[in-house]
Amino acid sequence: MPIINFIEKYSTIRNLGVHSHSYWEIIYVSSGSGMFVFSDDKTIKYNQGDVICIPPLLLHQNFPDKGFSNIHLTLINWSPNFHGPALISNLENADFHYVNDLHYILDLTYRQFHYIHQNKEIINNLTNLLLSYIDSLIQSPDVSISSKIIESKIVSNFENPYFDLNSVYEEFPYSKRHLQRLFLKDYGVSPLQYLIQQKLNAAIKYLNQSIKNDYSICEIADRCGFGDQYYFSRIFKKQFGVSPKEFRKSGASSAEIKDE
User: Fold this and answer.
1) Which of 21, 82, 135, 177 has the smallest count of CB within 10 Å of its CB?
2) DSSP string of 2-28?
3) CATH level 3 topology of 144-260
C-alpha cells in the first residue's frame, strides 16, 4: 500500500543541485515554470498546472524560473504503471472540472497529513484516489478528460435504448459542440458514431453466436440498445451492405466495426 512520507507547500524553491531520493516524488506546479534534468540526459519542461512524477534513486536537478511554487509529496510502496519520470502536462487548461479536483485532493491530503490528530484511514483513501487519478492520466495523456468520461458513459450504457448522449453533455460546463469536437479529435469519430459502433459490435457477436442461441433479430436489436428492430436493420445494412438476417445466413465472422 502506498504510504506518504511527507507533503508540503513551497512558495520559494532553492536549487538543491543534483540529487536523488529513496522514494517517489510528486510535484504539482501551482505557479511558475522551469525544467528538470535527469541523469540519463532526459529533460522535462514544466509550467503552471503540470504534475511531475520522479521515481526513486533517479539523479535529477530542478531549474525553476522565478515565481515557481508547488505542492511537493513523497511516498513509498507505490508501483505505478510507468517506471521513468513522467509529466502530466497543462492540467489547468484541460477541459473538465475534475482537473481542479487534483489540486483540491492534494490540498486536502496536505491538511489531513498536518493535522495534530491524523486520521490514517482518510489519508490512505486520499492517497489511493490521487494515485489512481495520476495513473489514469499518464496511461492516456493525449485523450482529454471529457472524452474519456463520455467514452466510459457510452461503453457502460450502450445497451440501454433510453440512453441519451445529451444527458451526458449536460454534465459538463462546456457546449455540446465543443465536446463533440474534442471527442472527434481524440477518437476519430463523433460520440454518436462511437455509440452506434458499440451497439453494432455487440450485434455482430450475437449474430456470430447464432448456433449457441436462438435470439431473433428483434431480441438482438433489444439487447444491443436499438429498441426498434427496423432501425437496427437499416443501420446494420448501411454499415455492412447486408441485413442482419442475411449476415447470419452467410456465416460472416469477425466483422467488427473499424473507425472510419
Assistant:
1) 177
2) -EEEEEEEESS-----SB--SSEEEEE
3) Arc Repressor Mutant, subunit A (1.10.10)
